[in-house]
Design goal:
The structure holds 2 protein chains of 2 kinds. By secondary structure, chain A is mainly alpha-helical. Chain A has 2 domains: 28-114, RNA polymerase sigma factor, region 2, helix turn helix motif (Rna Polymerase Sigma Factor, Chain: A, Orthogonal Bundle), CATH 1.10.1740; 117-218, Orthogonal Bundle (Arc Repressor Mutant, subunit A). Chain A has helices at residues 27-37, 41-63, 66-83, 93-111, 145-150, 152-163, 167-178, 183-190, 194-218; strands spanning 127-128, 134-135. In chain A, α1 (27-37) packs across α2, α2 (41-63) packs across α4 and α6 (152-163) packs across α9. The radius of gyration of chain A is 20 Å and the shape is elongated. Chain A starts with 26 loop residues before the first helix and ends with a helix. Chain B has a single domain (4-76), classed as Arc Repressor Mutant, subunit A, CATH 1.10.10. In chain B, α3 (21-33) crosses α4 (35-54). The radius of gyration of chain B is 22 Å and the shape is elongated. The termini of chain B are far apart. The chains are: A mainly alpha, B mainly alpha. At the A-B interface, α2, α3, α5, α6 and α7 of A face α1, α2, α4 and α5 of B. The structure holds zinc ion (ZN). Zinc ion is lined by residues 4, 7, 30, 34, 36-37 of chain B.
Chain lengths: 220, 78
């Protein structure tokens, strides 16, 4: 029987650098992993219950497509089930699961490359003169932007701006600001340093904010 | 005195409350007299608040059920 594991069990994302100390596995998690290795049915159901919301949110945010997100969620959990024996506990269980999720989502996105709407990150970065004064290419947000932020149209602008983020930046913004993971969790999941996560997050946030400003000014 | 560029460089850390008290004070001194940066900070903060509060997706119950069903099948096939 083909379980549809695909290639998502293999980790495309680099492992955290050697020398980074893995977090110690909490004993409750250790017990859960031990039960998973014994193919304890109830343990698999517990894992799905515990992680499905985050896994789905992550997959949905990355793929921007419900069908792909659902497939990625299924593949993630089946991959967890298939590969738990090779999970060594170098990272926490959650980090391992999120890493599989990101890889599954990336795989889906590659298949929809024609649908790529990303804009180079530097295109939206504000510019400054030699004295550090902002070079205003456009007037800044209208004081009533606050009210606009709350309306429906604004939600559309925001979704569009996030979809335009290059995937390296989008993944960090989704994990941190949408799903509420910590800088450390994102770093461990993506195999990045915390400094690199913060730097990507910083640029991603500015990008999104600048793009929304652009749409509001253009009235589209 | 910090420039607008300095403030922008620290924007994300400032929003996450990740600075030392001294740096925070310097940034706030700049914000007190620069309405451009004040708008920048305020609008970015509000934008991110919408992302964190309204942008998380609920997993459809039928999807959740399907995943569990597939895992059960896979387990039984072993
Ligand atoms: Zn300023």
């Amino acid at each position: 029987m083909d379980l549809g594991f695909g290639e998502t069990g293999s980790l495309l994302i680099e492992q955290p650098e050697a020398g980074m100390r893995p977090p110690r596995m909490p004993s409750a998690e250790g017990r859960l992993v031990a039960r998973l290795r014994q193919a304890d049915h109830a343990a698999f159901e517990e894992v799905v219950e515990q992680y499905e919301a985050k896994v789905y949110g992550l997959a949905r945010g990355l793929t921007r497509n419900d069908e792909d997100a659902q497939d990625a969620v299924q593949e993630t959990f089946l991959s967890v089930f298939k590969n738990v024996k090779s999970f060594k506990g170098d990272s926490s269980l959650s980090t391992w699961i999120y890493r599989i999720t990101v890889n599954a989502a990336l795989m889906k996105m590659r298949r929809r490359r024609h649908d790529d709407r990303t804009v180079p990150i530097d295109e939206a970065m504000p510019t400054f003169d030699e004295d550090g004064h902002r070079v205003a290419t456009l007037p800044d947000w209208h004081p009533r932007a606050d009210e606009m932020l709350l309306n429906k149209e604004m939600g559309g602008h925001l979704r569009r701006a996030i979809a335009e983020l290059e995937v390296d930046y989008r993944s960090v913004l989704i994990m941190r600001d949408q799903e509420g993971l910590s800088n450390e969790e994102v770093a461990a999941t993506l195999g990045l340093t915390v400094a690199a996560v913060k730097s990507r997050l910083h640029r991603a946030r500015i990008f999104v904010r600048e793009r929304i400003k652009l749409y509001m000014l253009q009235g589209r | 005195m910090l420039s607008c560029q300095d403030l922008l460089a620290d924007l994300s850390e400032y929003l996450d409350d990740g600075m030392t008290v001294e740096v925070r004070r310097e940034l706030e001194a700049h914000l007190a007299h620069c309405s451009t940066c004040e708008v920048l900070v305020d609008s970015t903060r509000k934008t991110l608040k919408i992302v964190s509060e309204n942008f998380s997706y609920e997993i459809p119950p039928e999807v959740s059920g399907r995943i569990l069903a597939r895992i059960r099948t896979a387990l039984e096939d072993r």
